[in-house]
Amino acid sequence: MYNFDTSVILESIPFLIEGMKITLFISVISSICAFLIGLIIVFFRTMGSKPLKFIAVSYVEIIRNTPLLIQLYFIYKSLPAIGLMLPPIGCGILALSVYTGAFISEVLRAGINSVASEQYQASISLGLSKFQTFRLVIFPQAIRIIIPPLGSQFINAIKNSSLVSFISVTDLFYRVYKGAVDDFRFFEFFITGALIYMVLTGTVALLTNIFENQFKIQGRTAKA
Amino acid sequence: MHWTDIAENYDFLMKGLFITLKLAMVSVSGSLIIGIILGVLRYSKLFLLSWFAVAYIESVRSIPLILFIVFIHFGALPYLTGEPSSFFVSACVAFIIFTSAYIAEIIRSGLNSVEKGHIDAAKSLGLNRMQRLTYIILPLAVSRMTPALVSQFISLIKDTSLASTIGLIELTRSGEIIYERTYHETEILIFIAFVYFVICFGLSKLSALWETKPYMCTEHREPVGANQ
Fold first, then answer.
1. Domain containing A87: what range?
2. CB under 8 Å to B189, separation ≥6 — which residues?
3. Strands, E, within B13-102: which ranges?
4. Distances from the Cα of B41 to the Cα of A64, B31, B49, B54, B140, angstroms
5. In angstroms, what CA-CA distances link B152 with A173, B31, B87, B102, B103?
6. So what's the ipTM on this one?
7. Is residue A49 classed as helix, strand or coil in its secondary structure?
8. In this structure, is residue B227 part of a structural domain?
9. How many CB atoms lie within 10 A of CB A157?
């Protein structure tokens, strides 16, 4: 039977907590940026002119159909060539925002498409502009439907943030791996790391549930 | 720009692409089998079985994939077998464990999506449990699950790039090996991204075709949209 040594873990708890803070920092910042990117993209896509629509669609398709690791390497290794020097953590946040933004824009689009088309016609007949329609009529209705998939995108952002360790950011995964290699204690460190990730993602899942109940309109069920 | 790098190392890159595709195929078949078992367990009414499936699915889904890959390659498999594990095997095991949890969820929601009316109708026609599953529930569920399964397969293909981190020479790693020698990262990375894009985008377009086949649509969908 494997000799499970808890003392190594207890010793390196502060080391891991430090990594957890970095992971949290990266995922929170990039989730916020990704949400903004997603909003802009989905506005272009649903209400923009033809060229804007084309740009939005190609952005989403290119980002969604290439691995995050490649995008991360690309930002880390190729941006300095055109004179844009970012610290590793900035590269990580940029890559993660761009990647998650594409997915969030798809989530938002699904939510917007689920709003009945009479709503558009009604707001047009009231004389609202496109942006006003989006901001005042469509978005408040769509946001209620998309809270659960949005939450799962934020969870994905936390999980994907583990990849920044490959561009030398000392996040949680980096520290888990380093601890495991240094002490040769793979089981202890990886189980602890997995537990910490589960706590982080579980918290987001819980918050999603709370928000979903908070924003629910009484007597109305989401149809998408 | 140094695009000739790609032409010079074309065979090497294609060898990497072959490994990537092999890895994806093996992993997707393995995870389909395990995912179906888990999904049916999750669907079953026996508390212990469905509880086990829920615990597995939820815990796997909340842990990053890279944790599995590295742990299985350097920790679990060497410990279990007593010798260093091969890159390909550990990557496969990690992908199967990870993807099967997602596939199980797809299977479950597909099974749940079959309306009770269909099942009642089958019952009233005198079909037994097995016949109901094979003739009524599965054909409906499978046609509804296909888009989700394809998109899971696409994200599996993208995730195979993570196998490069333990040293498996697949597409990403072979590109890395090239640009570590030549220092022309941009060209190689764009080329690799393009290859991944062609595969994944092609697959997603194929699945979209499948989705719009009229006989696959079991319910009437109102064409709602922003641009109407």
1. 6-215
2. A70, A73, A74, A77, A78, B175, B179
3. none
4. 31, 15, 6, 9, 19
5. 24, 11, 23, 8, 7
6. 0.88
7. coil
8. no
9. 27
Query: Which residue of B66, B81, B180, B184 is the best one to mutate when testing the A interface, meaning the one whose CB has the most A CBs within 10 A?
Result: B66
Chain B CB within 8 Å of residue A43 CB: no
| Two structure tokens written together for A111 | 């939510």
Fill in the amino acid letter for A64: R
Q: Where are the strands (E) in chain A, listed by range?
A: none
Q: Is residue B151 in a domain?
A: yes
pLDDT digits (tens, 9 = 90+) for B35-74: 989 988 887 778 899 899 999 999 999 999 999 999 999 9
The encoded tokens of residue B71 equal 């742990």
Instruction: Tell me the CB-side half-sphere exposure of residue A15, using CA atoms within 13 A.
Output: 17
| Amino acid letter, A79 | L
pLDDT tens column, B179-203: 999 888 899 999 999 999 999 999 9
The CATH number covering residue A186 comes to: 1.10.3720.10
Find the residue in A nearest to B173 (Cα): A70
User: Which of the residues in chain A have pLDDT under 70?
Assistant: 1, 218-224
Neighbours of A170 (CB within 10 A): 17
Q: How far apart are the first and last CA of chain A?
A: 49
Q: Quick check: is A75 in a domain? A: yes
- Whether A156 is in a domain gets the answer yes
Q: What is the pLDDT of residue A199?
A: 95
Of B62, B66, B189, the CB nearest to A173: B66
Q: Which residue of A has its CA nearest to B193?
A: A66
A100 in any annotated domain: yes
Q: How far is CA B111 from CA A84, B136, B142, B210, in A?
A: 50, 11, 8, 19
| Alpha carbon distance A32, A111 (integer Å) | 18
| Cα dihedral A54→A56→A58→A64 (10° resolution) | -160
Q: Tell me the shortest Cα–Cα distance from A161 to chain B, in angstroms.
A: 9
More confident residue, B209 or B25: B25
Structural domain count, chain B: 1
The structure tokens listed for B32 are 């389909």
Q: Look at residue A129 and tell me if it is in a domain.
A: yes
User: pLDDT tens for residues A1-47?
Assistant: 677 888 888 888 999 999 999 999 999 999 999 999 999 999 898 87
